[in-house]
TrEMBL record:
Catalyzes the formation of N(7)-methylguanine at position 46 (m7G46) in tRNA. One of its GO terms (cellular component) is tRNA methyltransferase complex. It catalyses: guanosine(46) in tRNA + S-adenosyl-L-methionine = N(7)-methylguanosine(46) in tRNA + S-adenosyl-L-homocysteine. S-adenosyl-L-methionine binds at residues 50, 75, 102, 125. This is tRNA (guanine-N(7)-)-methyltransferase.
Length: 261
């Protein structure tokens, strides 16, 4: 981390970063871990999660647009989390907590079935080389896991600027049990742009390079869905990436009502 990120981490991580028991990797989560999100935020509220929040551009805008929600982000890169802490503080956004960990493990181990109101997966790593496609986050197993964590009527919103990944995601979600395209999709199944999602620097670069932005929006049905059995590692894309120079471990974030930004 650079000096400003280290300063932001030291000042704000104790309040906003939720520490969890670690597995055998720096970004993994121990199988017996758990978080009571209502207790962590200090209030009962709809739970919304972003996986792969980066430097927090979309996260901050989405959380500001949903002050009624408890918003959780999973991100594996500590410098990006530190930058997010600075952004949230500057904008006085207090309804966010961040977990420095793999998002797929976080969804499985820290979120109860049918607990989620919304899941956001915006511009996940496309792993565009064919030999790396197996590392992509959105696959049938992850789709079943996501569906199991969404409450009936909950939304899974996705976006990507890589055409082949967009097509692959649409195919996976169309086949996933417990999910159906949200009203408003066009004839090809693409959703209108989610109004609360800002144009981030990453998206602008993709558009500037001539890539089309594809949005997807799927709604959880009432059909029962079981999460797939965990594999040996139970990790998703991005697992195993270093968290960087971890300054210190932090306790559970302070409740929302007791520790405003």
């Amino acid at each position: 981390m650079n000096p400003s990120q280290e300063k932001a981490w030291a000042a704000h991580a104790p309040r906003l970063v939720v520490e969890v028991p670690r597995g055998d990797r720096s970004t993994s989560i121990r199988p017996d871990a758990g978080v009571d999100w209502s207790a962590t935020f200090g209030r009962e509220a709809p739970l919304m999660i972003e996986i792969g929040s980066g430097r927090g551009e979309a996260l901050a805008a989405l959380a500001a647009a949903h002050p009624e929600a408890n918003v959780v982000a999973f991100e594996v890169f500590q410098p990006a989390v530190a930058s997010t802490l600075s952004l949230l503080t500057r904008r006085d956004i207090g309804n966010v907590r961040i977990v420095l960990a793999d998002g797929a493990q976080g969804l499985r181990r820290l979120v109860r079935p049918a607990e989620l109101a919304q899941l956001w997966t915006f511009f996940p790593d496309p792993w565009h080389k064919a030999r790396h496609h197996k590392r992509r986050l959105v696959d049938p197993g992850f789709a079943a896991l996501a569906a199991s964590r969404l409450a009936p009527g909950g939304h899974w919103r996705l976006a990507t600027d890589w055409e082949d990944y967009a097509l692959a995601m649409r195919e996976v979600l169309d086949a996933a049990p417990g999910l159906t395209p949200a009203p408003g999709a066009d004839a090809d199944g693409w959703a209108p742009r989610y109004a609360d999602r800002p144009v981030t620097k990453y998206e602008a670069r993709g558009a500037g390079a001539g890539r089309t932005i594809h949005d997807l929006d799927y709604v959880r049905t009432d059909d029962p869905v079981d999460a797939p059995a965990a594999d040996a590692d139970d990790v998703g894309a991005g697992a195993g990436e270093p968290v960087g120079d971890l300054v210190h471990r932090t306790p559970l974030a302070h409740p929302l009502g007791q520790d405003p930004l």
